[in-house]
Every structure is written in structure tokens, then in C-alpha cells.
Amino acid sequence: MNVAEFIDVMEGVPIQGVTSDSRQVGKGYLFAALPGNKVRGEDYIEDAIAHGAQYILLSSDVGGLEEFDEGVEFIKSDNVRFDFAKIVAKFYKIQPENIVAVTGTSGKTSVVSFIQQLWHLSGTKKCASLGTLGIRGPGIRQDGRLTTPGTETLHAELADLASVGINHLAIEASSHGLDQYRLDGLKVKCAAFTNLSRDHLDYHKDMQSYFEAKARLFQEVLVEGGAAVLNADDEFFEQLEKICTEKEIQFLSFGQKGEDIKLLSRIPKDYGQDIHISVAGVEHHVKLPLVGEFQVMNALCALGCVFALDSTTEKYVPLLEKLRGVAGRLELVSGHPKGSIYVDYAHKPGALESVLKTLRPHTSGRLICLFGCGGNRDAGKRQIMGEVAASLADQVIVTDDNPRYEEAESIRAEILKGAPGAVEIADRAKAIQQTVSEVNEGDVLVVAGKGHEKGQIINGEVHPFNDVEEVQKAIEGLLKVL
Predict the structure, then answer these.
(1) N or C: which end of the chain has fewer CB within 10 A?
(2) Are both 144 and 279 inside the same structural domain?
């Protein structure tokens, strides 16, 4: 039986479950033998059958199936991941009616949160966001681990949300998730692009391959008749504009070069910033309670997404003044008697550059940057991030950040090539404690890289650790001795 035939008859086929993990298989399940470089699904077919799998989805070039029981149905596929997504979507049947998917290197978490906030503030109560922070919505808080969950997990969560009445959902679309077809099968009505800068080149071959993975959201996942929201200030805008034009996708552009939502000016303020924008030709002045130009761009992207699904902009623009930032995204940790301390998730060169440039106008003393780089990830960005920090901050502290299975000392050494004058403190907790104690009047310290994360990964073991909590401890310790 081929995949198309199987999907056609699924209504009458008593499938009890779908999974790509042989350990989760039960009687009457479909097991997807997903291809991979390190873990190959076909190596677990026997285990899946032993657990009760009745249907096996596998690559067309896999042989040696005659040894298995005749009662097992094999479904051959030329693209197992893509077809598995279609089967899973068919199995779970329901998902929220209005889905917005946001892709890009930075800003996805903030944008999906802002979209959900704008919906909720405008009276759309049955709304949620899904991504790096998990699932968030009115009365809903479920922590997550992946920006874009695995295919079966994602569709199960969508079905659960739809079953309790959630009809508006904003979801993060990672390049890994798109490249691995995890979002195929979603009925995405609006696709948004925030920006593209160096990241995940340990997975993607080069920047163009990275872009092409992101572009799948517009070329293949977005439903026919769907809308796109694009950052006109990004260097990849013209490529996406061309894709949308060729596929006859209606799109909105935002940014300083944006035609539909245009940033005319912004002025940093104590509470955030005053922004002057033009939306569909109408000018507005907004007191945005967020710090940084990149947060303005995130807010405008979110505005474009709600506008794409509901063109009554006049009810959404004033709500920008009520937006709240998300955990670990330029999060101000209050209480320091002299300076200001922010925690941010920036773990890429472009994101770190943006954060430091954002905080400079708010700094009357020294701008201090404390950060590290993760192990078993794109090693090429380490020296670059060191160079960014050294060129934009007055003082740099290099420490550990999820070394995973690599030698932490080697990671720090690579960063220090780009920041030879930096202070090196291996233990992140000690680095935070010491640096917080040295913050003086007018100084601004940004603790970058981990943001909302609640663990430090060392040799495969996750140790409880949260930057905000460590900063709070350091401030409390400082206050005791003053």
C-alpha cells in the first residue's frame, strides 16, 4: 500500500496511535521509521513490531522486509518525514482554525507572545502561543523543550488546544522543524518572517541552505490563499518577496522600508520608547513599553500578523502600549542599588549585537557583557561573538553556557580569540556573582545566552540553573554587605 492509498482509507483503518519512537508503540499503532544520520528508524522496526505495531511507514529503498510477520502492513514512502506529518495530521483530525507561524533567526518567541497578547487584549479569549517557552494562553501554561515540537507531539498538542476551544494559535517555526517537515500538515493561514542571521550552521550547510529551510514555510506549508508578513529591512526580503509573488501570496511588509507597516521614528524613553508608525497609510504615535529597536520590529511583525487575519487595525494599534516582554528577552532584574541588569537569550552574533546596541543609549556608565557559547553547536560563531562583545561592550566576561559534551575550556578559548581582553570566569554562577558585585553607578550589565532556560547542560546532565535567579541571589548577597 502506498501513502496516498493509506491516507484515503484512514477513516476506516483502526489505528490506535502514531509515533516515530518504537518505545512508545502500542498494539495497533503506526510506527514511522524516520531516516537519520545517527539514529535510523529502520533499525527499530523489529522493536516496534514486538511492541504491537500494525503499520510501518518506511523509506521506499528499505529492503529485507520478508522476515517480518505477514500481519504487519508496510507503507513505502519517498519522503518519510513529509508523509508522516500528513498521516499524523489526519490521525489527530482537529487543530485551531487560525494558525500563524513565525520563522526567522531571532524574535520568534517574542512575536508569537505579542500576537497572542494582541488577540487576547482585543477580545479574542480563545487564543494561545506555542514555541520555545511551551504553550501560553489564558489559563494555559505548559513548559516546552523544543522551539518546534516533534511531529506527533505537535499535532497532539494542536488537537488538545482545539478540543478546549482554542481557535487562534501563534506558533514558532524553527529551521530544524521546517527542514524535518514537522510543520507539514498544519493549516497555516499566515506565515511571518522576522530576520535571518548566522545560526545553526552546524546543521545547515551555509546561509543559503538555512534560508531555504525557512522559506519552506512560505513555499510549501502556508495554505493556498494564506497571507505572509515580511521584514522589509532584512537582506533576504527580496528573495521572500519573489517567492510570494511567484506563488501569488498576498503579503504585508513591515520595518523602516515597510510599505504596509512603516517605522517612521523611535525615541528611547525610561519606560521603553516612543514610536511613530504608519499602518495602511494612517500615522500613529505609540508609547511602547519595550526596550530596543529589535523589540519594535517584533511588535510590528506581530501587528502585521493580526492585521493579516483581521484588517481592522484601529483596534490593535493602541494595544501595542499594553504589550509585555517575555521571560529572558531583555528581562530587567530589578533591585541593584547602582546599575541595571538585564538577562537575555541572545546566543547568536546578530542577536548579541542587537542587544548591546539596544542597551548602549540606556548606559551612562559601563556597558558590561557576560556570556558564553554552547557546546556541540555551530563552533564558527564563537570567535565572532567574542568580536561582537569586545567591539560593543566596555567590559566582557566569558563564562560557560551549556558546554554539553565539549570541553568548556576549549569553547571559552575560541571565544577569547575574538575578545582577548575579556575576563574569563568558568563557573557561570561565580561569574554572575562577581560581576554583579562590581556593577557601579550608571553601569548596565547584560547576562546573555540562556535567557529563560532553567538548566546548565554538562556532559549530558542537566543541572538546575537560571540566570535570573542567579542574578537575584547575587543582588541579595550584595545588599546584605552594604
Answers:
(1) C
(2) yes
DSSP three-state, residue 285: strand
Could you report the per-residue pLDDT of 316-359, keeping only the tens digit for each?
999 999 999 998 989 989 899 999 999 999 999 988 999 999 89
Give Cβ neighbours of residue 354 (< 8 Å, ≥ 6 apart).
106, 292, 293, 294, 346
DSSP E strands, 352-470: 367-371, 395-398, 423-424, 444-448, 455-458, 461-464
Would you say 444 and 362 are in contact if contact means Cβ atoms under 8 Å apart? yes
Can you give the residue range of the structural domain that contains 124? Answer: 94-322
Cα dihedral across residues 327, 215, 96, 181: positive or negative: negative
Nearest to 221 by CA among 179, 176, 247, 187: 187
Does 359 share its domain with 298? no
Percent with pLDDT over 70 in the chain? 97
Residue 475 phi, psi dihedral angles, 5° rounding: -65, -45
In sequence order, the 6+-apart residues with CB closer than 8 A to the CB of 213 are 175, 176, 178, 179, 204
Of the candidates 311, 296, 303, 295, which has an alpha carbon nearest to the alpha carbon of residue 261?
303
Q: Which of helix, strand or coil describes residue 465?
A: coil
Last residue of a domain, one of 38, 65, 90: 90
* Three-state secondary structure call for residue 387: helix
How confident is the model at residue 145, as a pLDDT?
A: 65
C-alpha cell at 57: 511507514
Torsion of CA 17, 19, 23, 29, to 10 degrees: 30
Strands 168-172 and 98-103: parallel
Cα gap 139→447, rounded to integer Å: 30
